[in-house]
Amino acid sequence: MTNTPESPSSLTPSNGSTEHGVSGVSPSSAPLLQLRAITKSFGAVQALKHVDLEVPAGKVTALIGDNGAGKSTLIKAIAGIYTPTSGEILWNGNVVHIHSPHDAEQLGIATVYQDLALCDNLDVVENMFLGHEDMRHRTLDEIKMELAAKQVLADLSVTTVKSVRQKVASLSGGQRQSVAVAKAVMRESKLVVLDEPTAALGVSQTAQVLELIHTLAGRGIAVLLISHNLNDVFAVADRIAVMHLGTLVSSGPVSDYDASSAVDLITTGESARSVSTMAPSS
Q: For 187-209, how does the pLDDT look when each residue is reduced to its tens digit (9 = 90+)?
């Protein structure tokens, strides 16, 4: 199924509902995000091959795989940076077409990349509202934005950021990650995609980020976690999906896996020790 050009309302589901592509009646059992046979080709190179993936609300789904497995391409398709060559994306059971990061944001998808996209010379409030500033009488409503930033950080149980007026340059890696996630949540995101959130962090900072992930899921937000650190994956994930050479080779509850089966799947694409191994799609 190849995606075809859509009308300007690119988020209109195939069933005719219109509000951000998520209104309309859908089965209560439908996952928040569902990918069906997603394929992405760059010329002769097929980066994704018929990927099927489900991301339920209020759960942490860990997407794992070796370098070159297709993880980055897949999350960029979800984030609207790449348009799949073929396949379908469903949101709350409705088919949607995500042609840009703006489309993804309208749906409620926020992606926090490894570089975090924060401005060191701005303070926490300025970073969290960058591009979405609140105005009052044609001037920035600093008080409203500061109170909102404090509230979001408090809701996420972020206690290590002592002042929302300190420059991001002065924050630790874990604090920066917390600010980037809080910025995403402020947009009322329903799905937060985290790309290697604990990379290069120390033990205590990693613990802060993992606790933040638990908090997001506890608030009913779906989390898609991309990580090479299996210790982190098994610490927070409810579900695991494994990619190998552009194909999703296995997915299921975290209880179906252990470190050995996960490593087998990452390196070879198969494992006799995992009950969730799937035959690659043809």
A: 789 999 999 999 878 898 899 99
CB 49 within 8 A of CB 247: yes
The pLDDT value given to residue 272? 77
* 19 Cβ neighbours under 8 A, 6+ residues apart: none
Q: Which of 99, 85, 92, 105 is nearest to 8 (CA)?
A: 99
Q: Please check whether residue 90 is in contact with residue 172, taking contact to mean a CB–CB distance below 8 angstroms.
A: no
Record the tokens describing residue 264, joined without a space: 């087998």
> Domain residues of the chain, as ranges?
28-268
CA nearest neighbour of 213 among 64, 75, 63, 59: 59
Architecture of domain 28-268: 3-Layer(aba) Sandwich (3.40)
First to last CA, the chain: 14
Residue positions counted in the chain: 282
Question: Are the C-beta atoms of 55 and 32 separated by less than 8 Å?
Answer: yes
Three-state secondary-structure class, residue 146: helix
Choose among 240, 235, 238: nearest CA to 220: 238
Q: What is the CA radius of gyration of the chain?
A: 19
What is the per-residue burial (b if ≥16 Cβ within 10 Å, else e) of 190-225? bbbbbbbbbeebeeebbebbbbbbebbbeeebbbbb
Over 50: is that where the pLDDT of 4 sits?
no
